[in-house]
UniProtKB/TrEMBL annotation:
Annotated DNA-binding residue span(s): 30-49
Keywords on record: DNA-binding
Chain ranges passing through the membrane: none
Name of the protein in question: TetR family transcriptional regulator
A GO molecular-function annotation: DNA binding
Record organism: Mariniflexile fucanivorans
UniProt domain HTH tetR-type: residue ranges: 7-67
Length: 195
């Protein structure tokens, strides 16, 4: 007889994974640490996941997939220019970093860890979205024909996330409004894409 999966426990495991990794780093985090934080037994965790890598891969897939779904949704509203789409996407990244700081920091760590790469399914989805964005941007004059797919991917997906993470550290002790950040990041990306 198959055992029932407790969705509440799965949610706690995922939240505990993100928190434990943000606090201790990916390499230092163990299944035992995650299980303790989630208040489940290590055995329960291993019944659901083959190990830490499997659990992290699932979280990474879920987040990356939700971002691609969001992008696809935004593209459905506007097929003539990309600035409103870029603005909305960045706004959502800022809001996400404020409302979900642990998840935002966790995703940032995975983006910058070479052990985590997109599965083929998401690579294909990402490539199609970036090609669609590039086509719209070239037609509207917002993207230079010399911008590569990799450059476009970096500037739309990673530039804003990197900037938000940098700002979160507040290394200079200066606070600026989110609206200023939103306008600055959007204008910077649009300027880079046009060169």
């Amino acid at each position: 007889m198959a055992r029932k999966i407790d969705e509440e426990k799965i949610k706690r495991i995922k939240e505990a994974t993100m928190l434990t990794i943000v606090e201790n780093g990916i390499e230092s985090t163990t299944i035992a640490m995650i299980a303790k934080e989630a208040k489940v037994s290590g055995g329960y965790l291993y019944r659901i996941y083959t190990g830490k890598q499997d659990l992290i891969n699932e979280l990474y897939f879920e987040k990356a997939n939700s971002i691609y779904q969001e992008l696809d949704f935004f593209l459905g509203f506007n097929q003539t220019n990309i600035e409103p789409f870029v603005h909305s996407f960045i706004r959502n990244r800022i809001v996400y970093s404020i409302n979900e700081p642990i998840a935002s920091k966790f995703y940032y760590q995975l983006l910058h860890n070479e052990n985590y790469i997109l599965p083929d399914e998401l690579k294909e989805k990402s490539l199609k979205l970036i090609e669609k964005i590039k086509d719209i941007g070239i037609k509207s004059g917002e993207i230079s024909t010399s911008i590569s797919i990799a450059q476009l991917h970096y500037h739309i997906f990673l530039y804003a996330i990197d900037y938000i993470h940098f700002k979160r550290k507040n290394i200079f002790g200066l606070e600026e409004s989110i609206q200023e950040d939103l306008a600055f990041i959007t204008q910077s990306i649009m300027r880079i894409l046009k060169e």
